[in-house]
Amino acid sequence: MWHGDNILGRLLAAATLALALGMAPPALADTKTNIVGAGDGTPFSWTCPGGDALIGWGWNALYNMTGIAPVCQALVNGKPSGAKPGAPTVGFGHACSGSPVCKTIIGGGPVVCPNGGFMIGVEVSLNAQSHVHHIRAICKADGHPREIIKASTTVPDPAAVAVSSSEISCISIVGSGSYAVGVLGAFGKSVGTGITAFGLICSSPDQSADTPPADTGDAADAGPDTADVGDTGDSDLQEQIDVGIGPDGVSFGPKGKARVLREPSTLYADRGDTEIAYFDAGDTVIVSACERKGRGWCKVIRPQPGLIWGGDLK
Predict the structure, then answer these.
(1) Residue 282: its pLDDT value, please?
(2) Are 96 and 105 in contact (CB under 8 A)?
(3) Closest residue by Cα to residue 312 from 271, 267, 273
(4) For the domain bounded by 27-203, which CATH number is listed?
(5) Which pLDDT value is given to residue 156?
(6) How much is the pLDDT for 131?
(7) Using CA atoms, how far apart are residues 165 and 287, in angstroms rounded to an integer?
(8) 147-148 sheet: strands from edge to edge
(9) Cβ neighbours of residue 112 closer than 8 Å, sequence gap 6 or more
(10) What span, in angstroms and rounded, lies between the C-alpha atoms of 182 and 30?
């Protein structure tokens, strides 16, 4: 006989009594997402030390991902805090025991979220055997849009490519303000099998009265209206037109300014949803206009048109 209604009623009554007595209700347990991949082999599950968030990983790979070593950092008021994390100390998969963990075949890292961000999801790509070919962290940093960072690399092989990909989102599963606190999945016995499935462990911060919620970028960070786009970060001038006279006659086009990437960043076709290119720290782009004096989205005209977050530019 199902007694779910009675159990739920008792839990609600207990929570109400606890609040009436000034007692805090128990914290919700961490939530494990579904894993993506076949999942054959040895399962693994690991959570960051209490209060820490997942911000990236070290890894190794051949033609697919063969090992992963999670990297964590403490969160304070929704932001990573404290000293920069050192090398990973625990890993899963091929050559991931001992020190250093997950000895490099190709890859290594650790790769961490830019701008002092933390992981709110992951994109998992599978090969034809439904084993993990590569993964990409979905990151969020305060004052920055959601960003999917570069993939874990593999040895190029036309016969071993990613054939599908799936996105795991802590926010979709746990709710707004949630973030990743651990990893789970499985790995095969041989290096050729590698990581056979991958998922996340998610948590939601304790939103007390004096602790602002973590900035997830789902609503408030969508950016101002496109009509506000109109300065290069140095003035309030609207986008300027450059007139050129050459052997083919007169040409017209937006006048731009060279800007250098202070850190890795993503070029979007829209405001943070459709990725079209990736840049490394030190790369140069030509920007024709920015929102909010460079503190919002900037319009890139070269090396290819798109939108980039102004905070990533020097």
Answers:
(1) 86
(2) no
(3) 267
(4) 2.100.10.30
(5) 78
(6) 95
(7) 32
(8) 147-148, 132-140, 118-126, 164-169
(9) 55, 56, 71, 85
(10) 9
Which CA distances in Å does 169 have to 68, 129, 180, 281?
19, 24, 9, 27
What number of other Cβ atoms are within 10 A of residue 124's Cβ? 26
* pLDDT value, residue 29: 63
Report CA-CA distances (Å) from 145 to 41, 117, 265, 305: 37, 10, 11, 19
CB 288 within 8 A of CB 276: no
Residue 97, strand partner residues: none
User: What is the distance between the alpha carbons of residues 83 and 105, in angstroms, rounded to a whole number?
Assistant: 28
pTM of the model: 0.59
Joined together, the tokens standing for residue 106 give 């190709």
Amino acid (one-letter) located at 285: V
- Cα 9 to Cα 310: distance, rounded to the nearest angstrom: 50
Tokens of 78: 């929704």
Contacts of 250 (CB under 8 A, 6+ apart): 243, 244
Calculate ∠ Cα 49-54-60, nearest 5°: 110
Among candidates 264, 182, 170, which has minimal Cα distance to 218? 170
Give the distance, in angstroms, between the CA of residue 80 and the centroid of all CA atoms in the same chain.
14
- How far, in Å, CA of 179 to CA of 210, rounded? 20
Amino acid sitting at position 135: I
Residue type, 43: P
Write down the domain spans for the chain: 27-203, 223-312
- Report the C-alpha gap between 233 and 231 in whole angstroms: 6
Q: Provide the terminal-to-terminal Cα distance of the chain, rounded to the nearest Å.
A: 65
Segments in the chain forming alpha helices (H) = 4-20, 170-173
Q: What is the pLDDT at residue 181?
A: 94
The mean pLDDT values, 10 residues at a time, for the chain of 314 residues are: 37 38 47 94 92 88 89 79 72 78 64 89 94 93 85 78 91 86 92 92 61 37 35 40 47 71 80 76 88 80 88 82
